User: What shape does this take?
Amino acid sequence: MLVILKRDAGQVSRQAAQLVASAIRKKPSLVLGLATGGTMVGVYQHLVRLHQEGSLDFSQIVTFNLDEYLGLPATHPQSFHHFMQEHFFAHVNVSARNIHIPDGTIRGNYDQYCASYEEAIRAAGGIDIQLLGIGRNGHIGFNEPTSSIASRTRLKVLSRETLDDNSKPFAPSEQSPRCAITMGIGSILDARKILLIATGASKAAAVAKSIEGPITSAVSASALQLHPDVTFIVDDPASSQLTQREYYLRVLEMTALLTPDRLS
Ligand code: PGA
Assistant: This one.
């Protein structure tokens, strides 16, 4: 596990975008796992800028989003389909046929639909890089605390903390979604490389438990300790509860000297 400590959110998103961009330049047909949420907005801004400057071509990449609210059509302003259009797809040249986001409008036959999402990932050759945010409760995707570490794409009931965090943008008259379709922790762990980004003090406890705590289904992101190629990129406030900061900084220095590819 590589822990990249950055001063602020701007530096975190720049570093994450750089890592994604260089992976796409090395493999133009990269299969990219995408995430939504406020933390990701800056990453997409940097990627869009690189594309508009002419230095990054997305025409061959294939994307799979982690999750979508159940019950929201793609046109709903709070749907993750809408988020992805607004912040990324509308501004870059990802081919529409290569974009995959779980369908929030399905009714019934959830297992069958979720198995077909997993099958599409397999048919694309598996995810090369999975981008992740993290919830205050340690969730990745919508894998809420107590999710099985072996879980696959499935229907998931949202936790109280997630409902509180995510209900704000919904109109007061509107019932915010109670469930989602999400890739599982097992699906995420199948990715060849994982990049988790976290910013702000509200994420500090979840970040510390994920990196330095025991592996437990009570903190879904702690399962990432089982993966051989995970990079956390965190800003100062989000890293404030890590006890091994000095060690991570020394690892970073040596990584820059010995295996600089991991940082660019
Ligand atoms: P956020 O969400 O980036 O909006 O904080 C992250 C998450 O819940 O995974």
